[in-house]
Amino acid sequence: MSCGCKTSGDSAHSCGTKSANGCESVNTCGNSYKLSVFDWLSNVQNPVSNRCDFVEVRFKNDRKSFYKNVNNIPLHIGSVVTVESSPGHDVGVVTLTGELVKIQMKKKRFSEEGSFKIYRLANQKDIEVWQEVRKKEDTVKVEARKISHRLGLEMKITDVEYQGDASKVTFYYTADNRVDFRLLIKEFAGTFRTKIDMKQIGFRQEAAKIGGIGSCGRELCCSTWLTDFRSVNTNVARYQQLSINPQKLAGQCGKLKCCLNYELDSYLDALSHFPSSSTMLDTEKGRAFCIKIDVFKKKMWFAYVDSSMAWYDFDIDLVKKLIATNKKGEKILPLEDLKVPDIALPSVDLIQENSVDRFEKKNRGFNKNRNQNSNQNQNPHQNRPQNQGPKKRPERTEKPENSDRQKNTNPNANPNQNQRPAKQQPPKVQLEKAEVQNDSEKPQQPPKKKFKKKFPPKKDNNV
């Protein structure tokens, strides 16, 4: 009986390979992905004289401790062991062995004096009892919350953990203020019939025990690898030019995110090359103050004290020169004169370039124009739609019929008198061509005579 969960970086071992020493499910292991340590010294042969007798054992969720292997039991990562506890014994899983345990003990300041020891490898009876009590933890937690709510205590029971031999149960709770739970312990002891242990934890430890997914899309750092919780304040967000928005800066624990400290050193190093954010510039137009800093672009935005709506950005090298000029007692030019105009880059229509059918549109229009030109060259009169009649001529004023006769009958008249100006000559030529085309297309036919239908006179019936 073994489970496929990995308890540390060593993928060669699981939570046990034998039926007597294995576990049946990941639930029994207690979310083994939490706070796992990669043993990078596992393949290094250590001297026998410097052999480490301590091993790291993990229990439910993030609870870990170090135990001494006094009997020199051959242990590896994933072995299920029975360890000493107060009272009775407990069951856990080995997560780290070898010389790396000394480094972890030194990091966590664990004292070797008074440490507990490992009894044996867990047998089948130990594992069965352990699994039975682990199955009752959810129902016990719900019942404990009902009791605390009935007593009117301002506390939240976060997690419940049974000891391996079912002789003790530990209740982890969070509260803003101090809670008097003397009456609560009596209720718990009478209901669950076992020894009760109450432990108050912080909101960050609560998130580490429960686990979850952060806003970055990954598992919470406090439940996977982060063991020490450093203080985080709002100055960290101000250094990184972040808006002080509690909904975005707070994690699932309700406190500021621990990851705000990760890049703080880089920001402080970059800000050491910037002038102070309280810098004031004396210009000919008035005093200006720093309103914004961009760490990545290495720019500072300034605005006038009188009119702070207009912002002007400058490189930090130019700002240092301006500050040096003010220190000499000289005023600098207005900010709008110092601002170098930005070169406008040619805009690209990203929507048109990234559209899926952009090639089809271009080719379709190109082929259409090419076909029209080729057809017009072959026969310009075939492309005219059949359902439409001839093109209408633009309206023009009609001349009296005698004007044309006068042109023909008077040979001595000046020929330039009746000519149109040069600007209006092209439309005349086009009209004449249109008339020729229209006359050629439609054969001239004599107009049909319209006959009026004559009706006989109406008879007067009164006669």
UniProtKB/TrEMBL annotation:
<dbReference type="Pfam" id="PF04468">
    <property type="entry name" value="PSP1"/>
</dbReference>
<feature type="compositionally biased region" description="Basic and acidic residues">
    <location>
        <begin position="395"/>
        <end position="407"/>
    </location>
</feature>
<dbReference type="InterPro" id="IPR047767">
    <property type="entry name" value="PSP1-like"/>
</dbReference>
<dbReference type="InterPro" id="IPR007557">
    <property type="entry name" value="PSP1_C"/>
</dbReference>
<feature type="region of interest" description="Disordered">
    <location>
        <begin position="365"/>
        <end position="463"/>
    </location>
</feature>
<feature type="compositionally biased region" description="Basic residues">
    <location>
        <begin position="447"/>
        <end position="456"/>
    </location>
</feature>
<feature type="compositionally biased region" description="Basic and acidic residues">
    <location>
        <begin position="430"/>
        <end position="442"/>
    </location>
</feature>
<feature type="compositionally biased region" description="Low complexity">
    <location>
        <begin position="408"/>
        <end position="427"/>
    </location>
</feature>
<feature type="compositionally biased region" description="Polar residues">
    <location>
        <begin position="8"/>
        <end position="20"/>
    </location>
</feature>
<feature type="compositionally biased region" description="Low complexity">
    <location>
        <begin position="366"/>
        <end position="389"/>
    </location>
</feature>
<protein>
    <submittedName>
        <fullName>Regulatory iron-sulfur-containing complex subunit RicT</fullName>
    </submittedName>
</protein>
<feature type="region of interest" description="Disordered">
    <location>
        <begin position="1"/>
        <end position="20"/>
    </location>
</feature>
<feature type="domain" description="PSP1 C-terminal">
    <location>
        <begin position="116"/>
        <end position="201"/>
    </location>
</feature>
